[in-house]
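Is pyridoxal-5'-phosphate placement plausible here? Inputs below.
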Amino acid sequence: MEKETGAIRLQAERSHYREHSVPLYLTSSFVFEDAEQARAVFAEEEQGQVYSRYANPNVDELLQKMCYLEKAEDGFAFASGMGAIFGSLGALLQSGDHVLACRSLFGSTHQLLTNIFPKWGISYSYADASKPEEWENLITPATKLILIETPSNPGLELIDMEWLGELKRKRNLLLIVDNCFATPVLQNPTDFGADLVLHSATKYIDGQGRVLGGIAVGTKELIAQIRYFARHTGPAMSPFNAWVLSKSLETLQLRVEKHCENALKLAEALEGNPALEKVNYPFLPSFPQYELAKKQMRQGGGIVTLEVKGGYDAAKRFIDNLKMASISANLGDTRTIVTHPASTTHSKLKEEERAATGITPGLVRVSVGLESIEDIIEDVTQALEAV
Ligand SMILES: *Cc1c(COP(=O)(O)O)cnc(C)c1O
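Reply from A.M.:
I modeled the complex. C-alpha cells:
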C-alpha cells in the first residue's frame, strides 16, 4: 500500500454493526468475559484492551497509521506534543546522562533541557546546525542521544540527516527527530537511521486547529520503554482526540501538498518586497540551505518566515494591518496564521538565546493556510504596504 492508501484504509476492526467509518470508543475501561480472561490479559498471555490509559481502539488505529507513514515498528500516543517529548526523553534518560541537541528547538523543549531535566542530573549541549564539525566534539562518554528538529521552529534551519545518521551509528548513540514541521509526507527520519520520531499532532496532523496530540514512533525496543513509562505516569491521548486525528490523517497528504504549494507561491511573491529584509523558505533558491532542502525534503513545507525591515515596531504594524490572517500561536492550520516569535512563543528565551537561533525582533512566522493563494498574497502584501 502507498502512504495515502494506508492513511485511509488502515482501520480499527469493524464491529457487528458493519459501520463504514470507525466509531468513537469513548470508554475508560474494557470488560472481561470472566475472571480467567482478566487474568490472562493482565498477564499478556491474551491480547486485549484493558484501560484507556494503556491503549484504546481509536488510539491504536491512529498509531497503526503513524507507524505506517513514518516507517516505524511501534508507537505510543500522548495528550500533546510536549507530552510525547517529555514522556520519551523521561523514559530513555537517567541521572548522569547527557543530551546533544540542535540549538534551534521548540521553546518548551528548550525549557525541558535547560531547566527541568537538570533537576534530575541530566545535562545537555547545544550544537549549531550550520557547524557540523562542532557536533562530534560535543559528544562525551555520558552522551546517550541526539535530539533535533529539521526544519526548526521558527528559524527553518535544516540539519543534514544523512550525515547525522552516520555520526550516530559511528558513535553508537540514539537519534531522535521532532518531525513536526515536515510531517511524514515530506521526509521520513527513519530513512536516515532515526530511532525515534516525535510529533506534535496538534499541528499538521490535526491540520484544522482543533485538538492537541503527541506521537512517538520508533523501534520496538525504545517504544517498549516509553510505553512502560507512559502507562504508569498517565500522559495518554484521549480516544476522542485520537479519533479526530485518525480522520485527519486521511487527508494529510493532500493538505500538506497544498500547504507547500501555497507557501512557495507566497515566498516567491514576497521576495524583493521593499518592506522586507529577507524571505526564508527552504525551496527558494536564495535559501542558504536550498541544496540540502532539495536533497532531504520532498517539498519545502508550509512555513515561510519574513524579516520585516524596522524591527519589532514594523513587525507589529505589519501584523496589525493584516485583514484575513489570524494572529495566533498555532501552525499547520487550514487558516493562515502569523506569529511574532520574539514577543510570544520564544519570549521566555534570553535575548542572546534568541539571537543565536535567528529569532530577530523583526521576524514574523507565517503558517501558510489553505485559503486561495490569491487572497493570502493580497492580504500579506497590503499589510506590508501599510508598514
Ligand atoms: C508545537 C510544537 C511542539 C509541542 O507540541 P504541543 O502539541 O503544542 O504540545 C513540539 N515541537 C514542535 C516543533 C512544535 O512546533
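Short version: The pocket of pyridoxal-5'-phosphate is lined by residues 80-82, 106, 149, 153, 178, 180, 200, 202-203, 212, 214 (CB under 6 Å).
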